[in-house]
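call fold(seq) -> tokens
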Amino acid sequence: GEYEGSAGSPPAFELLNFGTRGLNLSYPFAGNSCTKLVASLLLSYLYNPHYAVAQFYRILKPGGTAIISSMKPDSDVSMIFTRYTESLRRTGGDSSDNPLPQKLTGAVDMLNEAAGLFELEQEGYFKFFTAEELIAICENSGFQSIQVYRSLGTPPQAIIIVARKPLQGDE
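ret:
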């Protein structure tokens, strides 16, 4: 695709030109060709996540497993940042290969990037999913035996779904 927006402005989906390909871009994998598939924090950035999950289902062999994750809506990574910097203060945090100032700079950079992503999510450029939304997307594509895990801090800020494509005859 080609971006037709002005320089310096965030991309908006209505400004993307996919030409004749449309929005359901092909996934160049044979059907029933993989036993495992991981889509870590991917769906939030796709224009058509439902199509992507349907393609995951097509690509997986019967009995195959998909692991799909998303930040939860209205995530707050500041607690993760605060806990990390507190642990650095308690332990001294210095190591010869990664000194404390470098670790703190990296943590601040991560927090700033996360804040920018969440701002774009609020503006509608990304979609972070609830567990219920991810379950529904997986079920609509045919997945079964769906398990939900919550991760990334206390309270958890991310949702992880483990979904299984049924064995033939289990459907």
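The longest strand covers residues 60-71.
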